[in-house]
Amino acid sequence: MNGWMVTGAGGMLGSELCALLRARRQPVLAFSHGDLDLADGYAVRMAMERARPRVVVNCAAYTDVDGAESSEAAALRVNGDAVRRLAQACAATGARLLHLSTDYVFDGQAEAPWPEDARPVPRTAYGRSKLAGEQAVLAELPHSGTVVRTAWLYGAHGPNFVATMKEKAAAGETVRVVDDQHGQPTWARDVSERLYALGEIQVSRAAGIFHATSAGRTTWYEFAREIYRLAGADPALVRPLSSEDLDRVAPRPANSVLGHGRWAAAGLAPLRPWPEALAEAFSGIGTPLAAR
């Protein structure tokens, strides 16, 4: 095959990436969870040996942040152990690996954006499991493994914050949204573009850690207000809420803003500002207000 292989291809980001690769006439082998269980080491090795892909992108993950607090072993099997087996299979076949990770590897307590080389200190079981996956990739593929952290992701496929808020805006609902968590809303299509770019440049320039989030920063509250505005609804229907008022098992990061210093060193541009991306993405997410 010698093209691309995408795991977690049925998810939001995997779907976007596969569509992009096909549009650019790249051979792509797409695996959803039902097609390939990454926890099955033998199945992973056989798939890699048969396909012999040039680039593997791992979008598969255990993503239940609250559920991981009581099922950390299950999260670790998918986000840590399975990633190590996939990295080993890539090493054995000479494939490059782009592995998706998260802002949850940080404790969220800093004021400034988190640079790529900041020391991870996860506060949650989910974050610990994702950090284990990062460490596995960098250990097994020190010269050809790439960790791509993203956060606050939205897109046309699957449930996400933009789709939910857009639906509530269409119904004229009043919503309460946290205003003390800061981050960077990021369009899955923009991330898929950067994944493609990383897979196409010289491997030595792509190895290591990159942060694929949109430029700028905001809060969930201000993000929701912008969604309501774009939907033609009154942003005043969005009311602020403190994180302390939420009944969440796992703590959410107060600061999920990531720095983007590695892109320039790789000869690539960082992602564009989040309001610009949201405006372009908006019509393709959920049901437009005018259609209701």
TrEMBL record:
GO terms for molecular function: dTDP-4-dehydrorhamnose reductase activity. CDD domains: dTDP_HR_like_SDR_e. Keywords: NADP, Oxidoreductase. It comes from the Bacteria. Residues 5-282 form the RmlD-like substrate binding domain. It is an enzyme of class 1 (oxidoreductase). The keyword NADP applies. The keyword Phosphoprotein does not apply. InterPro entries: dTDP_dehydrorham_reduct, NAD(P)-bd_dom_sf, RmlD-like-bd. Pathway: Carbohydrate biosynthesis; dTDP-L-rhamnose biosynthesis. It holds the Pfam family RmlD_sub_bind. Its EC number is 1.1.1.133. Catalyzes the reduction of dTDP-6-deoxy-L-lyxo-4-hexulose to yield dTDP-L-rhamnose. Belongs to the dTDP-4-dehydrorhamnose reductase family. This is dTDP-4-dehydrorhamnose reductase. It comes from Streptomyces physcomitrii.
